[in-house]
Amino acid sequence: MTLKKVLLAEDDPDIQKVAKMSLKFAGIAEVVVVDNGEDCLAAASREKPDVILLDVMMPKMDGYEACKRLKANPETQGIPVIFLTAKAQQFEVKKGLGLGACGYLTKPFNPMTLYSEIKALLDQAADKPGS
Fold it and tell me: N or C: which terminus of the chain carries fewer CB neighbours within 10 A?
């Protein structure tokens, strides 16, 4: 899968900047950034990204609720979601994956390996039966 467009739902401006630079450096043509869960839902429908990177703790709607709604909407349910969050406890990882996310990355992340980690999760998801 070639990644051309990534939707990043993240409310921290520093993390937005680092993630965007990291993905652009890796060759992603377009990184759309939103800072809350409600805007993530709207942008996912409008932008049709190849993948959504989703923080858990955001204003207006948290990432778990946003993921649940993305997966319930026929228009966005096929877009892979990867959580990118500081919430790293095992029960939180299970919750995120249980809502339909194909991966879970924790902050702080390494900007030099972010793209390859995303790609590995997407490839792993594509190899699963039923995908």
Answer: C
The domain limits of the chain are: 5-125
- The confidence band for 92, taking pLDDT boundaries of 50, 70 and 90, is very high
CATH of 5-125 given 3.30.70.20, 3.40.50.2300, 3.40.309.10, 3.40.190.10: 3.40.50.2300
Sign of the dihedral through C-alpha 53, 9, 63, 47: negative
What residues pair up with 105 in beta bridges, in sequence order?
84
- Kindly state the average pLDDT of the residues 75-79: 96
Q: Residue 129, class by beta-carbon neighbours within 10 Å (0-12 exposed, 13-18 middle, 19+ buried)?
A: exposed
